[in-house]
């Protein structure tokens, strides 16, 4: 056996375990996200409120084809460069302006003055009406929307109505009547000072119908700093009467609350039956062919917004490059081997011919 062949076989042998090691990695990464989806599905199937099944007999829209919330499958979103950043105006309120904070039996609602408005990102202008939250329990997450099957700890909805209508009640029955800004809440390392402005008052409104006046603050602080990255779709109110009149914006950046703040949220308010008010989210609804737009290229992983995933994407990139290099080396060595093997065979086939050629060449060179 010649040396070149030996080298190639050795190289291949050395790479074999490496290849075996590398190959399962992409599979491992995807099965991780499959698990996430299974968890999301599992948790979603625990229907939080028993009467949800009967909503559409009293409110026909609840059985419609443009219902909310939905699962946002990022791979199926449509990148729309004309979705401009959401612009908020009048969101910073002075402390001497008092706002009503209320337990309505379904959620905590903060009533907002009409001076707050969305002035950019939508084709029309929308005035704020109220904001409220959806949450799970101490064990389970409770956002309404999910992203790639993943449910987040909680979700904020800031509800607005089109300025071309005189009131919220008039707007909510019109196809272009409402705009809701939604953002996901997750547990982070530190206390969120903006959410503190709401959470510190919850113990005063434990009973249904109770309300308290809270000092104004910068309401925009309850929403992500990045108002450029979002998903957009046509949907509905997520509680009866489920009117299909909401242009939804779901931000890609999430809000972080401390662990203590999150547990305050899920353990303070009570329902009519004086049970804890928990799991006040509606299950995700069928898309029925609706499109979900994205203001950014959501099909590509956004490393800075998914710190949990960024490392695996980096590792994936490195492995891909390594794999590519190893493949190139193998291919090159193989070609080299074939080339050498062929020229050797050629020489063996016609020893006299090659001798003649070599002599001729050498004489020419010395001349
Ligand atoms: C679903 O709930 C279980 C607890 O019942 C929890 O351990 C799991 O993390 C939840 N799934 C997700 C996607 O958060
Ligand atoms: C929402 O509905 C309006 C009116 O029918 C339509 O023009 C718009 O394209 C829809 N938006 C999306 C994201 O499908
Ligand atoms: C944000 O977008 C990235 C990229 O599509 C996606 O992986 C991530 O799940 C999104 N997160 C949220 C909260 O929308
Ligand atoms: Zn809501």
Automatic annotation (TrEMBL):
Alphabetized Gene3D superfamilies for the sequence: Alpha carbonic anhydrase
Residue stretches of biased makeup (Basic and acidic residues): 36-57
Start and end residues of each stretch annotated as Disordered: 29-63
Cofactor: Zn(2+)
Region forming the signal peptide: 1-31
SUPFAM superfamilies, per the entry: Carbonic anhydrase
Domain annotation Alpha-carbonic anhydrase: ranges: 42-296
Annotated SMART domains: Carb_anhydrase
PROSITE patterns registered for this protein in UniProt: ALPHA_CA_1, ALPHA_CA_2
InterPro entries associated with the record: CA_dom, CA_dom_sf, Carbonic_anhydrase_a-class, Carbonic_anhydrase_a-class_CS
Keywords for the protein's UniProt record, in alphabetical order: Lyase, Membrane, Metal-binding, Signal, Transmembrane, Transmembrane helix, Zinc
Record EC number: 4.2.1.1
Reactions listed under catalytic activity: hydrogencarbonate + H(+) = CO2 + H2O
Taxonomic superkingdom: Eukaryota
TM annotation in the entry: 318-339
Family: Belongs to the alpha-carbonic anhydrase family.
Task performed by this protein: Reversible hydration of carbon dioxide.
Protein name: Carbonic anhydrase
Organism of this sequence: Willisornis vidua
